[in-house]
Amino acid sequence: MDTPLLNGAAVAEGGDYVPVKGLKETGKVVWIETVRIWKIALPIIFNIWCQYGVNSVTSIFVGHLGDVELSAVSLINSVIGTFAFGFMLGMGSATETLCGQAFGAGQVNMLGVYMQRSWVILFVTSILLLPIYIFAAPILKILGQQKDIADLAGSFSILVIPQFLSLPFNFPTQKFLQAQSKVNVIAWIGLGALIVHIGMLWLLIYVLDLGLTGAAIAFDVTSWGITVGQLIYVVGWCKDGWNGLSWLALKDIWAFVRLSLASAIMLCLEVWYMMSVIVLAGHLDNAVIAVDSLSICMNFNGWEGMIFIGVNAAISVRVSNELGLGHPRAAKYSVYVTVFQSLLIGIVFMVVILVTRDYFAIIFTNSKPLHEAVSKLGGLLAVTMVLNSVQPVISGVAVGGGWQALVAYINLGCYYLLGLPLGFLLGYKANLGVEGLWGGMMCGIVLQTLLLLFILYKTNWKKEVEQTTERMRIWGGQDIEVDKIVAST
Protein backbone atom coordinates (compact mmCIF):
# COMPACT_ATOMS: atom_id res chain seq x y z
CA MET A 1 0.00 0.00 0.00
CA ASP A 2 1.69 3.20 -1.19
CA THR A 3 1.66 6.36 0.83
CA PRO A 4 -0.29 8.97 -1.21
CA LEU A 5 1.47 11.89 -2.86
CA LEU A 6 0.36 15.37 -1.89
CA ASN A 7 0.48 18.19 -4.47
CA GLY A 8 3.07 16.25 -6.45
CA ALA A 9 5.51 16.02 -3.54
CA ALA A 10 7.75 12.94 -3.56
CA VAL A 11 6.79 11.64 -0.14
CA ALA A 12 6.59 7.94 -0.95
CA GLU A 13 9.12 5.28 -1.75
CA GLY A 14 8.03 1.64 -1.90
CA GLY A 15 5.03 2.51 0.26
CA ASP A 16 7.11 4.39 2.85
CA TYR A 17 8.18 8.02 3.14
CA VAL A 18 11.50 9.21 1.78
CA PRO A 19 13.63 11.19 4.28
CA VAL A 20 12.04 14.61 4.80
CA LYS A 21 14.21 17.61 3.98
CA GLY A 22 13.11 21.23 4.30
CA LEU A 23 10.04 22.97 5.70
CA LYS A 24 7.89 22.39 2.63
CA GLU A 25 8.26 18.60 2.72
CA THR A 26 7.87 18.62 6.50
CA GLY A 27 4.61 20.51 6.18
CA LYS A 28 3.23 18.04 3.66
CA VAL A 29 4.14 15.04 5.83
CA VAL A 30 2.60 16.76 8.87
CA TRP A 31 -0.64 17.28 6.92
CA ILE A 32 -0.80 13.67 5.68
CA GLU A 33 -0.14 12.25 9.15
CA THR A 34 -2.57 14.69 10.77
CA VAL A 35 -5.37 13.51 8.49
CA ARG A 36 -4.50 9.85 9.06
CA ILE A 37 -4.24 10.10 12.85
CA TRP A 38 -7.36 12.17 13.46
CA LYS A 39 -9.46 10.15 11.05
CA ILE A 40 -8.89 7.24 13.43
CA ALA A 41 -8.69 9.22 16.66
CA LEU A 42 -11.82 11.39 16.47
CA PRO A 43 -14.39 8.54 16.45
CA ILE A 44 -12.43 6.78 19.22
CA ILE A 45 -12.29 9.98 21.28
CA PHE A 46 -16.01 10.51 20.79
CA ASN A 47 -16.71 6.95 21.94
CA ILE A 48 -14.42 7.28 24.96
CA TRP A 49 -16.05 10.58 25.87
CA CYS A 50 -19.40 8.84 25.74
CA GLN A 51 -18.18 5.98 27.91
CA TYR A 52 -16.44 8.35 30.33
CA GLY A 53 -19.58 10.44 30.26
CA VAL A 54 -21.40 7.44 31.70
CA ASN A 55 -19.16 7.70 34.80
CA SER A 56 -19.28 11.49 34.99
CA VAL A 57 -23.04 11.76 34.56
CA THR A 58 -23.48 9.11 37.23
CA SER A 59 -21.26 11.14 39.59
CA ILE A 60 -23.32 14.26 38.85
CA PHE A 61 -26.60 12.49 39.63
CA VAL A 62 -25.18 10.82 42.75
CA GLY A 63 -23.43 14.01 43.90
CA HIS A 64 -26.81 15.67 44.37
CA LEU A 65 -27.89 12.83 46.65
CA GLY A 66 -25.21 13.82 49.19
CA ASP A 67 -21.46 14.20 49.83
CA VAL A 68 -21.14 10.73 51.40
CA GLU A 69 -22.83 9.10 48.40
CA LEU A 70 -20.50 10.97 46.04
CA SER A 71 -17.46 9.86 48.05
CA ALA A 72 -18.67 6.23 48.01
CA VAL A 73 -19.15 6.13 44.24
CA SER A 74 -15.90 8.04 43.71
CA LEU A 75 -13.99 5.47 45.75
CA ILE A 76 -15.44 2.58 43.76
CA ASN A 77 -14.76 4.27 40.43
CA SER A 78 -11.35 5.66 41.40
CA VAL A 79 -9.99 2.84 43.55
CA ILE A 80 -11.73 -0.53 43.15
CA GLY A 81 -13.02 0.05 39.64
CA THR A 82 -9.81 1.67 38.42
CA PHE A 83 -7.70 -1.14 39.88
CA ALA A 84 -9.72 -3.83 38.11
CA PHE A 85 -10.50 -1.78 35.00
CA GLY A 86 -6.84 -0.88 34.53
CA PHE A 87 -5.67 -4.46 34.83
CA MET A 88 -8.31 -5.72 32.41
CA LEU A 89 -7.63 -2.95 29.90
CA GLY A 90 -3.92 -3.67 30.13
CA MET A 91 -4.46 -7.37 29.52
CA GLY A 92 -6.52 -6.44 26.47
CA SER A 93 -3.72 -4.27 25.07
CA ALA A 94 -1.91 -7.38 23.87
CA THR A 95 -4.77 -7.79 21.40
CA GLU A 96 -4.18 -4.21 20.26
CA THR A 97 -0.51 -4.91 19.50
CA LEU A 98 -1.03 -8.20 17.69
CA CYS A 99 -4.21 -7.27 15.79
CA GLY A 100 -2.68 -4.00 14.58
CA GLN A 101 0.53 -5.62 13.39
CA ALA A 102 -1.30 -8.60 11.85
CA PHE A 103 -3.63 -6.26 9.95
CA GLY A 104 -0.68 -4.28 8.63
CA ALA A 105 1.05 -7.51 7.59
CA GLY A 106 -2.06 -8.68 5.71
CA GLN A 107 -2.88 -11.52 8.13
CA VAL A 108 -6.48 -10.33 8.61
CA ASN A 109 -7.72 -13.88 9.24
CA MET A 110 -5.75 -13.97 12.50
CA LEU A 111 -7.58 -11.00 14.05
CA GLY A 112 -10.60 -13.05 15.11
CA VAL A 113 -8.34 -15.71 16.63
CA TYR A 114 -6.43 -13.11 18.66
CA MET A 115 -9.71 -11.58 19.86
CA GLN A 116 -11.07 -14.94 21.00
CA ARG A 117 -7.80 -15.77 22.72
CA SER A 118 -8.08 -12.50 24.61
CA TRP A 119 -11.70 -13.27 25.56
CA VAL A 120 -10.56 -16.46 27.27
CA ILE A 121 -7.66 -14.84 29.09
CA LEU A 122 -9.64 -11.79 30.24
CA PHE A 123 -12.62 -13.83 31.41
CA VAL A 124 -10.39 -15.98 33.62
CA THR A 125 -8.72 -12.79 34.86
CA SER A 126 -12.08 -11.23 35.72
CA ILE A 127 -13.03 -14.24 37.86
CA LEU A 128 -9.72 -13.96 39.72
CA LEU A 129 -10.37 -10.26 40.36
CA LEU A 130 -13.96 -10.66 41.61
CA PRO A 131 -12.94 -10.79 45.32
CA ILE A 132 -11.85 -7.16 45.01
CA TYR A 133 -15.46 -6.22 44.31
CA ILE A 134 -16.96 -8.65 46.81
CA PHE A 135 -14.74 -7.47 49.67
CA ALA A 136 -14.51 -3.80 48.65
CA ALA A 137 -15.73 -2.49 52.03
CA PRO A 138 -13.07 -4.20 54.19
CA ILE A 139 -10.39 -3.43 51.61
CA LEU A 140 -11.26 0.28 51.72
CA LYS A 141 -11.24 0.22 55.54
CA ILE A 142 -7.80 -1.39 55.53
CA LEU A 143 -6.68 1.40 53.22
CA GLY A 144 -7.86 3.84 55.89
CA GLN A 145 -11.14 5.10 54.46
CA GLN A 146 -13.94 6.26 56.78
CA LYS A 147 -16.29 3.46 57.89
CA ASP A 148 -19.54 5.01 56.66
CA ILE A 149 -18.06 5.80 53.22
CA ALA A 150 -16.41 2.36 52.92
CA ASP A 151 -19.60 0.49 53.86
CA LEU A 152 -21.70 2.39 51.33
CA ALA A 153 -19.01 1.93 48.69
CA GLY A 154 -18.92 -1.81 49.43
CA SER A 155 -22.66 -2.12 48.85
CA PHE A 156 -22.37 -0.26 45.55
CA SER A 157 -19.42 -2.45 44.52
CA ILE A 158 -21.45 -5.67 44.82
CA LEU A 159 -24.17 -4.20 42.62
CA VAL A 160 -21.80 -3.28 39.76
CA ILE A 161 -20.21 -6.75 39.43
CA PRO A 162 -22.27 -7.44 36.24
CA GLN A 163 -20.76 -4.31 34.69
CA PHE A 164 -17.26 -5.58 35.48
CA LEU A 165 -18.00 -8.98 33.91
CA SER A 166 -18.77 -7.32 30.58
CA LEU A 167 -15.19 -6.06 30.24
CA PRO A 168 -13.57 -9.40 29.18
CA PHE A 169 -15.65 -9.25 25.99
CA ASN A 170 -15.78 -5.48 25.57
CA PHE A 171 -12.05 -4.69 25.46
CA PRO A 172 -10.81 -7.33 22.97
CA THR A 173 -13.75 -6.67 20.64
CA GLN A 174 -13.00 -2.95 20.67
CA LYS A 175 -9.29 -3.59 19.92
CA PHE A 176 -10.31 -5.92 17.07
CA LEU A 177 -12.31 -3.11 15.46
CA GLN A 178 -9.72 -0.40 16.13
CA ALA A 179 -6.92 -2.41 14.48
CA GLN A 180 -8.90 -2.28 11.23
CA SER A 181 -9.79 1.42 11.69
CA LYS A 182 -13.47 0.43 11.98
CA VAL A 183 -14.01 3.10 14.57
CA ASN A 184 -17.18 4.89 13.45
CA VAL A 185 -19.40 2.06 14.64
CA ILE A 186 -17.73 2.20 18.05
CA ALA A 187 -18.58 5.90 18.27
CA TRP A 188 -22.26 5.37 17.37
CA ILE A 189 -22.62 2.57 19.92
CA GLY A 190 -21.05 4.80 22.59
CA LEU A 191 -23.41 7.68 21.83
CA GLY A 192 -26.47 5.45 22.01
CA ALA A 193 -25.29 3.98 25.30
CA LEU A 194 -24.75 7.42 26.88
CA ILE A 195 -28.21 8.65 25.89
CA VAL A 196 -29.86 5.51 27.27
CA HIS A 197 -27.75 5.72 30.44
CA ILE A 198 -28.85 9.29 31.21
CA GLY A 199 -32.48 8.27 30.78
CA MET A 200 -32.04 5.26 33.06
CA LEU A 201 -30.34 7.37 35.77
CA TRP A 202 -33.21 9.87 35.78
CA LEU A 203 -35.81 7.09 35.86
CA LEU A 204 -34.13 4.87 38.47
CA ILE A 205 -32.78 7.55 40.83
CA TYR A 206 -35.41 10.29 40.72
CA VAL A 207 -38.62 8.67 39.48
CA LEU A 208 -38.31 5.25 41.16
CA ASP A 209 -36.22 6.66 44.06
CA LEU A 210 -33.72 3.76 44.01
CA GLY A 211 -30.70 5.91 44.92
CA LEU A 212 -27.32 4.18 44.53
CA THR A 213 -29.03 0.93 43.58
CA GLY A 214 -30.55 2.67 40.57
CA ALA A 215 -27.15 4.07 39.58
CA ALA A 216 -25.64 0.56 39.75
CA ILE A 217 -28.41 -0.96 37.61
CA ALA A 218 -27.88 1.76 35.00
CA PHE A 219 -24.13 1.00 34.98
CA ASP A 220 -24.74 -2.73 34.44
CA VAL A 221 -27.27 -2.36 31.63
CA THR A 222 -25.25 0.29 29.79
CA SER A 223 -21.98 -1.66 29.89
CA TRP A 224 -23.54 -4.88 28.60
CA GLY A 225 -25.42 -2.92 25.94
CA ILE A 226 -22.12 -1.55 24.58
CA THR A 227 -20.54 -5.01 24.62
CA VAL A 228 -23.42 -6.75 22.87
CA GLY A 229 -23.63 -3.99 20.26
CA GLN A 230 -19.96 -4.41 19.36
CA LEU A 231 -20.25 -8.21 19.19
CA ILE A 232 -23.25 -8.02 16.88
CA TYR A 233 -21.32 -5.77 14.50
CA VAL A 234 -18.27 -8.07 14.52
CA VAL A 235 -20.29 -11.21 13.75
CA GLY A 236 -22.53 -9.54 11.19
CA TRP A 237 -20.21 -7.14 9.33
CA CYS A 238 -16.57 -8.20 9.84
CA LYS A 239 -16.38 -11.28 7.63
CA ASP A 240 -12.67 -10.88 6.80
CA GLY A 241 -11.45 -10.83 10.39
CA TRP A 242 -14.19 -12.97 11.93
CA ASN A 243 -14.47 -16.57 10.71
CA GLY A 244 -16.41 -17.96 13.67
CA LEU A 245 -15.27 -19.58 16.90
CA SER A 246 -11.99 -21.44 16.54
CA TRP A 247 -9.92 -23.85 18.61
CA LEU A 248 -6.86 -21.90 17.41
CA ALA A 249 -7.77 -19.41 20.14
CA LEU A 250 -6.34 -21.89 22.67
CA LYS A 251 -3.09 -22.43 20.74
CA ASP A 252 0.05 -20.71 22.14
CA ILE A 253 -2.16 -19.21 24.82
CA TRP A 254 0.63 -19.01 27.42
CA ALA A 255 2.78 -16.87 25.15
CA PHE A 256 -0.25 -14.61 24.68
CA VAL A 257 -0.71 -14.52 28.45
CA ARG A 258 2.87 -13.31 28.91
CA LEU A 259 2.38 -10.43 26.47
CA SER A 260 -0.98 -9.64 28.09
CA LEU A 261 0.61 -9.51 31.54
CA ALA A 262 3.37 -7.19 30.32
CA SER A 263 0.68 -4.94 28.85
CA ALA A 264 -1.37 -5.06 32.05
CA ILE A 265 1.58 -4.24 34.27
CA MET A 266 2.59 -1.30 32.07
CA LEU A 267 -0.88 0.23 32.11
CA CYS A 268 -1.74 -0.62 35.70
CA LEU A 269 1.39 1.04 37.06
CA GLU A 270 0.09 4.21 35.40
CA VAL A 271 -3.57 3.86 36.36
CA TRP A 272 -2.93 2.75 39.95
CA TYR A 273 -0.49 5.60 40.44
CA MET A 274 -3.22 8.22 40.11
CA MET A 275 -5.62 5.98 42.03
CA SER A 276 -3.23 6.07 44.99
CA VAL A 277 -3.70 9.85 45.27
CA ILE A 278 -7.37 9.27 46.15
CA VAL A 279 -6.40 6.60 48.71
CA LEU A 280 -3.78 8.79 50.37
CA ALA A 281 -6.17 11.75 50.42
CA GLY A 282 -8.59 9.62 52.45
CA HIS A 283 -6.09 9.69 55.33
CA LEU A 284 -5.93 13.48 55.52
CA ASP A 285 -7.94 15.64 57.93
CA ASN A 286 -11.48 16.29 56.67
CA ALA A 287 -11.27 13.28 54.36
CA VAL A 288 -14.64 13.91 52.67
CA ILE A 289 -13.57 17.34 51.40
CA ALA A 290 -10.11 16.04 50.44
CA VAL A 291 -11.46 13.05 48.48
CA ASP A 292 -14.31 14.98 46.88
CA SER A 293 -12.15 17.94 45.76
CA LEU A 294 -9.54 15.62 44.29
CA SER A 295 -12.21 13.48 42.64
CA ILE A 296 -13.76 16.53 40.96
CA CYS A 297 -10.36 17.61 39.63
CA MET A 298 -9.62 14.08 38.43
CA ASN A 299 -12.98 14.05 36.72
CA PHE A 300 -12.06 17.10 34.63
CA ASN A 301 -8.58 15.70 34.07
CA GLY A 302 -10.27 12.52 32.91
CA TRP A 303 -12.34 14.38 30.30
CA GLU A 304 -9.15 15.76 28.79
CA GLY A 305 -7.45 12.41 29.27
CA MET A 306 -10.13 10.76 27.17
CA ILE A 307 -8.94 12.78 24.18
CA PHE A 308 -5.44 11.45 24.56
CA ILE A 309 -6.55 7.92 25.27
CA GLY A 310 -8.25 8.17 21.89
CA VAL A 311 -5.04 9.51 20.37
CA ASN A 312 -3.23 6.72 22.23
CA ALA A 313 -5.38 4.15 20.43
CA ALA A 314 -4.97 5.92 17.08
CA ILE A 315 -1.17 6.13 17.26
CA SER A 316 -1.07 2.51 18.39
CA VAL A 317 -3.04 1.55 15.27
CA ARG A 318 -0.83 3.70 13.02
CA VAL A 319 2.45 2.40 14.47
CA SER A 320 1.40 -1.26 14.54
CA ASN A 321 -0.05 -1.11 11.02
CA GLU A 322 3.02 0.63 9.56
CA LEU A 323 5.44 -1.73 11.30
CA GLY A 324 3.41 -4.66 9.99
CA LEU A 325 3.65 -3.17 6.49
CA GLY A 326 7.41 -2.70 6.85
CA HIS A 327 7.32 1.15 6.83
CA PRO A 328 9.73 2.44 9.50
CA ARG A 329 9.70 6.13 8.45
CA ALA A 330 5.90 6.26 8.33
CA ALA A 331 5.80 4.93 11.90
CA LYS A 332 8.44 7.42 13.06
CA TYR A 333 6.92 10.48 11.38
CA SER A 334 3.46 9.58 12.64
CA VAL A 335 4.80 9.48 16.21
CA TYR A 336 6.58 12.84 15.93
CA VAL A 337 3.54 14.63 14.47
CA THR A 338 1.16 13.18 17.06
CA VAL A 339 3.34 14.02 20.07
CA PHE A 340 3.76 17.64 18.90
CA GLN A 341 0.05 18.18 18.28
CA SER A 342 -0.92 16.55 21.59
CA LEU A 343 1.38 18.93 23.47
CA LEU A 344 -0.30 21.94 21.85
CA ILE A 345 -3.75 20.63 22.81
CA GLY A 346 -2.58 20.09 26.39
CA ILE A 347 -1.42 23.71 26.63
CA VAL A 348 -4.85 24.93 25.48
CA PHE A 349 -6.55 22.89 28.22
CA MET A 350 -4.11 24.25 30.80
CA VAL A 351 -5.13 27.82 29.95
CA VAL A 352 -8.85 26.95 30.16
CA ILE A 353 -8.45 25.44 33.64
CA LEU A 354 -6.47 28.40 34.94
CA VAL A 355 -9.17 30.81 33.73
CA THR A 356 -12.10 28.81 35.20
CA ARG A 357 -10.50 27.39 38.36
CA ASP A 358 -12.89 29.25 40.70
CA TYR A 359 -16.07 28.13 38.94
CA PHE A 360 -15.99 24.63 37.44
CA ALA A 361 -16.73 22.74 40.69
CA ILE A 362 -20.32 24.06 40.67
CA ILE A 363 -21.22 21.37 38.14
CA PHE A 364 -20.73 18.70 40.81
CA THR A 365 -21.65 20.33 44.09
CA ASN A 366 -23.22 23.34 45.80
CA SER A 367 -20.85 23.08 48.78
CA LYS A 368 -18.84 26.31 49.22
CA PRO A 369 -15.98 24.65 51.16
CA LEU A 370 -15.67 22.12 48.34
CA HIS A 371 -15.59 24.93 45.74
CA GLU A 372 -12.71 26.57 47.64
CA ALA A 373 -10.82 23.28 47.94
CA VAL A 374 -11.14 22.59 44.22
CA SER A 375 -9.98 26.13 43.37
CA LYS A 376 -6.77 25.59 45.37
CA LEU A 377 -6.01 22.52 43.26
CA GLY A 378 -6.61 24.36 39.97
CA GLY A 379 -2.93 25.13 39.33
CA LEU A 380 -1.88 21.51 39.78
CA LEU A 381 -4.74 20.36 37.58
CA ALA A 382 -3.61 22.75 34.84
CA VAL A 383 -0.03 21.43 34.85
CA THR A 384 -1.30 17.85 34.93
CA MET A 385 -3.34 18.60 31.81
CA VAL A 386 -0.12 19.36 29.90
CA LEU A 387 1.75 16.31 31.18
CA ASN A 388 -1.14 13.99 30.44
CA SER A 389 -1.36 15.23 26.87
CA VAL A 390 1.98 13.67 25.92
CA GLN A 391 2.33 10.63 28.18
CA PRO A 392 -0.66 8.60 26.85
CA VAL A 393 0.52 9.14 23.26
CA ILE A 394 3.91 7.63 24.06
CA SER A 395 2.19 4.72 25.80
CA GLY A 396 0.21 4.17 22.60
CA VAL A 397 3.46 3.98 20.66
CA ALA A 398 4.71 1.40 23.16
CA VAL A 399 1.60 -0.74 22.64
CA GLY A 400 1.84 -0.41 18.86
CA GLY A 401 5.49 -1.45 18.91
CA GLY A 402 5.22 -4.12 21.60
CA TRP A 403 7.46 -2.33 24.12
CA GLN A 404 5.19 -2.95 27.10
CA ALA A 405 7.81 -4.64 29.33
CA LEU A 406 10.32 -1.77 28.93
CA VAL A 407 7.72 0.88 29.75
CA ALA A 408 6.60 -1.16 32.78
CA TYR A 409 10.11 -0.92 34.28
CA ILE A 410 10.23 2.83 33.63
CA ASN A 411 6.81 3.32 35.23
CA LEU A 412 7.84 1.33 38.28
CA GLY A 413 10.93 3.45 38.88
CA CYS A 414 9.46 6.88 38.11
CA TYR A 415 6.12 6.42 39.81
CA TYR A 416 6.74 4.17 42.78
CA LEU A 417 10.40 4.81 43.65
CA LEU A 418 10.24 8.59 43.12
CA GLY A 419 6.76 10.08 42.70
CA LEU A 420 4.78 8.22 45.36
CA PRO A 421 7.35 8.57 48.20
CA LEU A 422 7.87 12.24 47.32
CA GLY A 423 4.12 12.86 47.34
CA PHE A 424 3.82 11.16 50.72
CA LEU A 425 6.61 13.31 52.18
CA LEU A 426 5.16 16.56 50.85
CA GLY A 427 1.58 15.69 51.73
CA TYR A 428 2.10 14.35 55.25
CA LYS A 429 5.56 15.28 56.54
CA ALA A 430 5.60 18.77 55.03
CA ASN A 431 1.87 19.22 55.87
CA LEU A 432 0.99 20.37 52.35
CA GLY A 433 -2.09 18.14 52.20
CA VAL A 434 -3.65 17.27 48.86
CA GLU A 435 -1.44 19.81 47.06
CA GLY A 436 1.67 18.09 48.40
CA LEU A 437 0.44 14.61 47.48
CA TRP A 438 -0.45 15.61 43.95
CA GLY A 439 2.60 17.84 43.39
CA GLY A 440 5.07 15.19 44.49
CA MET A 441 3.49 12.55 42.33
CA MET A 442 3.57 14.88 39.32
CA CYS A 443 7.37 14.82 39.58
CA GLY A 444 7.24 11.11 38.79
CA ILE A 445 5.13 11.80 35.69
CA VAL A 446 7.62 14.46 34.52
CA LEU A 447 10.56 12.06 34.79
CA GLN A 448 8.67 9.23 33.09
CA THR A 449 7.63 11.46 30.20
CA LEU A 450 11.18 12.73 29.65
CA LEU A 451 12.59 9.20 29.65
CA LEU A 452 10.01 7.96 27.16
CA LEU A 453 10.66 10.94 24.88
CA PHE A 454 14.36 10.10 24.94
CA ILE A 455 13.62 6.47 24.06
CA LEU A 456 11.47 7.60 21.13
CA TYR A 457 14.29 9.84 19.91
CA LYS A 458 16.79 6.94 20.02
CA THR A 459 14.49 4.28 18.52
CA ASN A 460 15.78 2.38 15.49
CA TRP A 461 12.57 2.00 13.50
CA LYS A 462 14.08 -0.39 10.94
CA LYS A 463 14.92 -2.75 13.79
CA GLU A 464 11.34 -2.43 15.02
CA VAL A 465 10.15 -3.59 11.57
CA GLU A 466 12.40 -6.66 11.84
CA GLN A 467 11.02 -7.54 15.26
CA THR A 468 7.43 -7.04 14.11
CA THR A 469 7.96 -9.26 11.06
CA GLU A 470 9.44 -12.01 13.21
CA ARG A 471 6.55 -11.71 15.68
CA MET A 472 4.03 -12.08 12.87
CA ARG A 473 5.92 -15.08 11.47
CA ILE A 474 5.71 -16.85 14.83
CA TRP A 475 2.16 -15.82 15.83
CA GLY A 476 0.69 -16.04 12.36
CA GLY A 477 2.36 -19.34 11.56
CA GLN A 478 3.68 -18.04 8.27
CA ASP A 479 7.23 -18.12 6.95
CA ILE A 480 7.86 -14.48 6.12
CA GLU A 481 11.28 -13.54 4.83
CA VAL A 482 12.43 -10.80 7.14
CA ASP A 483 15.37 -9.76 4.97
CA LYS A 484 13.17 -9.04 1.97
CA ILE A 485 10.86 -6.75 3.92
CA VAL A 486 13.68 -4.92 5.69
CA ALA A 487 15.54 -4.49 2.38
CA SER A 488 12.53 -2.75 0.89
CA THR A 489 12.76 -0.08 3.62
From TrEMBL:
GO terms for biological process: xenobiotic detoxification by transmembrane export across the plasma membrane. GO terms for molecular function: antiporter activity; xenobiotic transmembrane transporter activity. Keywords: Membrane, Transmembrane, Transmembrane helix. The chain crosses the membrane at residues 119-140, 152-171, 183-208, 214-238, 259-282, 302-321, 333-357, 377-399, 406-426, 438-457. GO terms for cellular component: membrane. It is a multi-pass membrane protein. PANTHER family: MULTIDRUG RESISTANCE PROTEIN (PTHR11206). Belongs to the multi antimicrobial extrusion (MATE) (TC 2.A.66.1) family. This is Protein DETOXIFICATION.
